[in-house]
Amino acid sequence: MIVTPETRDLETWNANLAFFADHFGGTAESIAVFPAFETDPYSGASPHPDTERSRAETLWRLASETPDILITSAAALAARIVSPGDVADAGCRLSLGSEFPPEQLMRKLVAAGYVREDPVTSIGQFSVRGGIIDVWPPDRELPVRLDFFGDELDSIRSFDPGTQLSTGKLNAVDLAPMRELVAEPDDLRLWAAEAEERFTSPELTRGLRDRLAFAEHGETFSGWEFLFPLIRPLRSGILDHLDKHVLLIDEPVAAEAAIAELHANTARHFAESLSSGQIGLRPDELFFDGERLREIIGRSPRLEMRALGVAAAATDEDHALPESGISASPLFLFPTAAIRDEAAIHAPPARQFNGDIKAFVSEFKNRTPSIVAATHGMAERIEEILREYSIDAPAGTVRVGSLTGGFSLADEGFDVVTEAEIFGNTIRPQAAVRSSRASGKRRVGAFISDFRDLKQGDYVVHIDHGIGRFDGLQTIASPAGEREFMLLVYADDAKLFVPVERLDLVSRYASGETASPTLDRLGGLGWQKTKAKAKRAMRDMADELLKLYAERKLVSGYAFSPDAPWQHEFEDAFPYELTPDQAKAIDDVKADMESPRPMDRLIVGDVGYGKTEVA
Fold first, then answer.
1. Which class does domain 436-524 fall in?
2. Given its phi and psi angles, is residue 493 left (phi above 0), alpha (psi -120 to 50 degrees) or beta?
3. Handedness of CA 515, 519, 525, 527 (dihedral sign)
4. DSSP H helical segments within 405-443, as ranges?
5. Are 239 and 1 in contact (CB under 8 A)?
6. Where do runs of H (alpha helix) occur along 441-525?
7. pLDDT tens for residues 39-53?
8. Cβ distance 283 to 263 under 8 Å?
9. CA distance 35 to 10
10. Which of 256, 298, 248, 294 has the alpha carbon at shortest distance from 72?
11. More confident residue, 437 or 501
12. 263 touches 290 (CB < 8 A)
C-alpha cells in the first residue's frame, strides 16, 4: 500500500503505475485507489458523490479480491471507516436460481446509495417493472436486468442502456454498494432518537431540528455521513481491509505534516461548529489520534521513500501543534538508529532537451531509452527521428501512454524519456507531476533567465523544502558522468543539491519586508505549516459557501400527505390522456411535495407540449 502526502498525489501515482503495469508486464486493473474525503466534516455538506463511489468501489474490491497495489493518502489512512464485515453486508451477489425477495432487494439498493430512475441510463440507478429489476452496478460496463419469478431469480442479462436491448446472459452478478456507509430508514430513525438524547444543549437545538425532520422520515440529509457514526461507531481503518501488505510511505516528512494539519484543522472546525450552534461528532470519533495511528502503522512492514538530502528524523518541536484534543506524536518518523536498512537509489529526472534533437541523439548514441509519447502520431514522429539518425530502436522502444516525467537508472542502464523532455512541451498529462505545484506551466527557459541574475547569498524558495540561501553551482561526478547542481543552504547549515534541470522547483524569494527571512530546516515541518496557513486562507471562503449551501439544504419544508381518494377522482376526470413524460413529471412533483425537503424542481417543455396539463 502506497501512502502519499496529499490527495492530489494519488492520480500521479496511479497514472504512472498504470503506465508501467500496462507496458512492462501487468495490468492497470491490479491497482486500486482509496481517496480521502475532501469535505470538512463540520461544514454540513456531504462528500462528493464521485469520491464516495470511488471509496466504496475500492472497499468492495478489497472484500472480494486483493489488488497488487493500493494507493491512498495520509488523510485517508488516519480516517475511521466501516469494517470489512459492513462492506460485505452492504452489497450482495446474486446467482441464477437464488432466492431474494424483490422488495427486499429494492430496499437494499436504496440503502446502498442507488437511485430509482426509469429507464436506467447511468451507473448507480435502478428501475422496477413488475418482476423485472434493472440495475447498473458501479463496477460493470453495462447495466443488468434481473428477472424474478416470485422470489426466485430466473434470468440475468446485460443490456444496452441506449437501446434497452439485451446483450448477453450472465450466471451471476455482484451488486456493489454506491457508498461505504449504508443506512436504511429504520437506521435513520434510530439515529434521530440517539441524536435527541446526545445533543441536548439549547445552542444545538436549531442545527439538530432540521436534521431530525429528515431522519424521522427515514431520509438522509446533507452531511449525514459525518454524523451517522453516532449509532454505528467506526472502529476500523483502511489497513484493516488488507491481509498481507507492505507500506510504502512517499515522503514521510510531508505525510507526517499532512496528518498533523488534518488533526489541527479538525479540532479547530469542531470547536467552531460548537460555538456556532452546529452539531457534530468529536474528532476522535471520525479519525484515529496520533498514538492509535502510530500503533496501527507500527504493525506493518514499512518502506520509506525520501528525496536525497532530506533528514531522516524530526524533533519534537516540528510536531508542536495548537491544542487540538488529538495527540500529534510522530507517526512515520523514527530516529536514524531505528532504521535497519537504507538504500540510495540514484534515479535523476530525465534531461530536458527542449527541442534540441541533436543533443538528444548524442545523449543516447550508445544506448536506447524507452520513449513515451502521448499520441500515436507523436510516436511515429519520434520513430522517424530515430531512423533518420540511424539509432537502433528495437520494437517497443517508443510506447504510447501517459507518464508525468522520465528518469535515468544509470547503474541498471535503464532510461525513460517522455516527449515533453525531448521537444520541450509545457503541457503535461492530466496527473500533474508533484513538482508542478509551484508554478503550473511555467517554462524552464524563462526561469533560467531569472536564475542567471542570482548571486551567491540570495534567498530562494524550494517548493518542497521552503526558504533557503543560494550558495552557487557545484559540479559533482557520478558513475553516469559529471552533473551540475544548484547548492541551497538551510538552517543548521544543512545543504540541498538541486539538479540544474529541476530548476523549476526553485524560485526567487520575494517579500515586501526588508529584514532577512528565517531559513527553513530540512526535514522539519515549518515550511509545511506555512503552506498549510496559505491553504487555510483559501479554503475559508469555500467553507463559508459550503456552509451556506448546506443550511439551505437542511431547511425543513411542509410535507404534504399522499393522494386522497378525491385526488384520484379529479385525475380520472381529466379529459386528456397523459403522455409517459407528463405522468413521470407529475409523479416526481408529488414525491417532492410529500417529502420534508423543500422542492427544487423546474418543469421544462417546448410550447404546446403539455406543461399546463401537468400544473
1. mainly beta
2. left
3. positive
4. 419-423
5. yes
6. 444-451
7. 899 988 888 888 888
8. yes
9. 7
10. 248
11. 501
12. yes
pTM of the model: 0.64
CA distance 96 to 341: 54
pLDDT digits (tens, 9 = 90+) for 221-248: 888 999 999 989 999 999 999 988 889 9
Q: Which residue has the cell 462492506?
A: 87
Rounded to the nearest integer, the mean pLDDT of the chain is 81
Q: Nearest Cα to 332, choosing from 314, 311, 317, 307?
A: 314
User: How far from the centroid of its chain's Cα atoms is residue 20's Cα?
Assistant: 21
Q: How far apart are CA 29 and CA 23, in angstroms?
A: 13
Strand partners, 302: 247
Total Cβ atoms within 10 A of residue 380: 13
Q: What is the largest CA-CA distance in the chain?
A: 93
Which of 186, 178, 176, 256 has the alpha carbon at shortest distance from 218? 186
The H or E element spanning position 415 is strand 414-418
CA angle in degrees (0–180, nearest 5) for 331-335-338: 95
Contact 322, 529 (CB under 8 A): no
pLDDT surpasses 90 at 1: yes
In this prediction, residue 366 has a pLDDT band, given cuts at 50, 70 and 90, of: confident
CATH 3.30.2060.10 domain position(s) in the chain: 92-175
CATH code at 2-85+189-338: 3.40.50.11180
- Domain spanning 92-175: CATH 3.30.2060.10: yes
Structure-derived torsion over alpha carbons of residues 11, 16, 19, 22, reported in degrees to the nearest 10: -80
**What are the Cα distances from residue 94, in Å, to 101, 152, 213, 383, 578?**
12, 10, 35, 50, 37
Contact 478, 416 (CB under 8 A): no
Which position has the grid cell 439544504?
553
Intervals of CATH 2.40.10.170 along the chain? 436-524
Q: What is the rounded CA–CA span in Å between residue 22 and residue 9?
A: 20
Q: How many Å apart are CA 319 and CA 252, to the nearest integer?
A: 13
- Angle, in degrees to the nearest 10, between helices 252-275 and 526-554: 40
| Domain span(s) for CATH 3.40.50.11180 in the chain | 2-85+189-338
Question: Are the beta carbons of 261 and 244 closer than 8 angstroms?
Answer: no
Set of cell numbers at residue 51: 469520491
